UniProtKB/TrEMBL annotation, chain A:
Top-tier EC class: hydrolase
PANTHER family: ATP-DEPENDENT PROTEASE SUBUNIT HSLV, METALLOPROTEASE TLDD
Record-level Gene Ontology MF annotations: threonine-type endopeptidase activity
Record's keyword terms, sorted: Cytoplasm, Hydrolase, Protease, Proteasome, Threonine protease
Catalytic activity from the UniProt record: Cleavage of peptide bonds with very broad specificity
Pfam families: Proteasome (PF00227)
EC number of this enzyme: 3.4.25.1
UniProt GO cellular component terms: cytoplasm; proteasome core complex, beta-subunit complex
Protein name, as recorded: proteasome endopeptidase complex
Region annotation Disordered: where it falls in the sequence: 210-241
Keyword Ubl conjugation listed: no
Lineage per the UniProt record: Archaea, Methanobacteriati, Methanobacteriota, Stenosarchaea group, Halobacteria
Residues at the active site: 14 (nucleophile)
Automatic annotation (TrEMBL), chain B:
Record region (Disordered): 146-185
Cited Pfam families: Proteasome (PF00227), Proteasome_A_N (PF10584)
One biological process term in Gene Ontology: ubiquitin-dependent protein catabolic process
Transmembrane residue ranges: none
PANTHER family: PROTEASOME SUBUNIT ALPHA/BETA
Full protein name: Proteasome subunit alpha
Keyword Oxidoreductase: no
Coiled coil: none
Record text on subunit structure and interactions: The 20S proteasome core is composed of 14 alpha and 14 beta subunits that assemble into four stacked heptameric rings, resulting in a barrel-shaped structure. The two inner rings, each composed of seven catalytic beta subunits, are sandwiched by two outer rings, each composed of seven alpha subunits. The catalytic chamber with the active sites is on the inside of the barrel. Has a gated structure, the ends of the cylinder being occluded by the N-termini of the alpha-subunits. Is capped at one or both ends by the proteasome regulatory ATPase, PAN.
Organism of derivation: Natrialba chahannaoensis JCM 10990
GO cellular component, one term: cytoplasm
Length: 241, 282
């Protein structure tokens, strides 16, 4: 994570997570952008972005590279949609992302890519272009701390409501001790459309929610409360405050 | 040689040149080459696609197996050809590469229409670029797609219109058979059943008689092989150049693509099954 040879090179120490559940996918990341993890350059950076319907990714690494990469990936997806008249699957998107990272001009980007089409899935895409199918993943400088939380509580049959609480507490735990992660949080919730994929784009959009939180606590409180309301007997594993 | 003949020849020579009435003679000649080729038919069924083709054996000494009319280009796609065999093989090779490129790039089998369009694009280039001639072959591109995305949604809509509201959600992957014709001009058309090559008009009107009427949707059923063979017989009566005009397992090639044969990479119709199918035509 330390590559500061170029003066233009902005390293975002970061914590991001992605989790696949029974009815959808949750992606979350902190909002701190920093120079080498030592100076906070931005407190509202968005590191979870949509790349198309049903699909989004988190990134850790250089912001400039990530923005350029996401533009490229969106273009590739759009080309696929026009050429084949259908939506690319999460696996297809991950494969294209891996090839782009491997052959493109990107030095250091770690991605967690998730989506619900044709079913909920999370892929870890490494800086060398490695593409790995995984039920949950973390990336960035705080990933060890986040993984500690995920290893403890993740279950594949959890609903997205439960996974949202798990995702935010994993990020929270990382921000407590990783100085390069912090400030607010972005939480993306992609839910499987029960009708088997709605007929209108607007309709589908309802199943993609990108929430911005000004503080870590607000994110944790909001997401764990909601989970608790849905299934309080479940003894929700992430309500520690 | 009068002046009109000279002018006509000029349009003949370079296919990149339009005639005054807007025609591309070389492309039309290429279509003529296809018309002279032995016919291939394709029929979409409820569960898959059937391809059948007539092989022209110009001598009893010719090994029947060495005459190839139907080519598998990927697990889920096959191509039947008519016209110049050598040109057709080049297109088959192009198709195979295109299929693998899609798999490499997108980690999934290529949709049949995407492949047909890609082959059509390639053929079109040869009608416009300098120093080339059009392909003297037409193709029937048949495939069984995974059936998801927008196509899946469309079917969901029609299903929900006639019955229950919510079907199976995610991963309801209904296989979707498809059949496309690609001609020497570089256009591709989707068909429920069609033919290319010699006797196309007869075969097509036979298929139209069988399928275009009232209950067309239920016309073919699951087993399309009998209809494909019958249509082939309907078009082969007037092939004057053939020494052997009778349909036999030796002179017929057939392939059945269904979700099962896609999974097993099987589907080629064997001699016995062909003999049975042809016997039932009598």
């Amino acid at each position: 994570m330390d590559q500061t040879d170029s003066t233009e090179y902005i390293e975002t120490g970061t914590t991001t997570v992605g989790l696949a559940g029974a009815d959808g996918v949750v992606l979350a990341a902190d909002r701190r952008a920093s120079l080498g993890g030592r100076f906070v350059t931005n407190r509202t950076a968005q590191k979870v972005v949509p790349v198309g319907d049903h699909t989004a990714l988190t990134f850790a690494g250089s912001v400039g590279e990530a923005q350029s990469f996401v533009r490229q990936l969106r273009a590739e997806r759009s080309r696929y949609e026009h050429a084949t008249d259908r939506s690319p699957s999460v696996e297809t998107t991950a494969t294209v992302a891996g090839d782009l990272l491997r052959s493109g001009p990107y030095q250091h980007l770690e991605l967690v890519l998730g989506g619900t089409f044709p079913e909920p899935a999370v892929y870890q895409v490494g800086p060398g272009g490695g593409v790995m199918d995984t039920p949950y993943a973390a990336s960035g400088s705080g990933m060890q701390l986040a993984y500690g939380r995920l290893e403890d509580a993740y279950e594949p049959d959890h609903s997205v409501d439960t996974l949202r609480g798990l995702a935010t507490t994993a990020i929270r735990n990382a921000t407590e001790r990783d100085t390069a992660s912090g400030d607010g949080m972005t939480v993306a919730t992609l839910t499987v459309d029960e009708d088997g994929g709605g007929d209108e784009h607007d309709h589908e959009r309802e199943f993609e929610q990108f929430e911005q939180f000004e503080s870590i606590d607000a994110a944790v409180t909001t997401t764990t409360n909601r989970a608790g309301g849905e299934s309080d007997t479940d003894a929700e594993p992430g309500v520690a405050t | 040689m009068d002046s009109s003949t000279t002018r006509q020849q000029a349009y003949d020579r370079g296919h990149t040149i339009f005639s005054p009435d807007g025609r591309l003679y070389q492309v039309e000649y290429a279509r003529e080459a296809v018309e002279r080729g032995s016919p291939s038919v394709g029929v979409v069924t409820d569960t898959g696609v059937v391809l059948a083709a007539r092989k022209r054996l110009r001598s009893p000494l010719l090994e029947s197996k060495s005459v190839e009319k139907i080519h598998r280009v990927d697990d889920h796609v096959a191509v039947a050809t008519a016209g110049h065999a050598a040109d057709a093989r080049q297109l088959v090779e192009t198709a195979r590469k295109r299929c693998q490129r899609h798999r490499l790039r997108y980690a999934e089998p290529i949709p049949t229409e995407t492949l047909a369009e890609a082959i059509a694009d390639h053929i079109q280039e040869q009608t416009q670029a300098g120093g080339t001639r059009p392909y003297g072959a037409a193709l029937l591109v048949a495939g069984v797609d995974a059936g998801r995305g927008r196509e899946r949604k469309r079917r969901k809509e029609s299903e929900s219109g006639s019955g229950s509201g919510s079907g199976s959600n995610a991963a309801g992957q209904h296989p979707q058979p498809a059949l496309y014709e690609v001609d020497p001009g570089g256009t591709h058309y989707g068909w429920r059943a069609t033919a290319i090559g010699n006797g196309t008009a007869d075969i097509r009107s036979f298929l139209e008689g069988r399928l275009a009427d009232s209950d067309a949707e239920a016309g073919v059923g699951e087993d399309g092989l009998p209809l494909a063979l019958e249509s082939l017989a309907a078009g082969t009566s007037e092939t004057e150049t053939d020494t052997d005009t009778e349909l036999s397992p030796e002179t017929v090639d057939a392939l059945v693509l269904t979700p099962d044969t896609v999974a097993d990479r099987a589907g080629a119709v064997g001699e016995e099954e062909l003999a049975d199918g042809l016997g039932e035509l009598e």
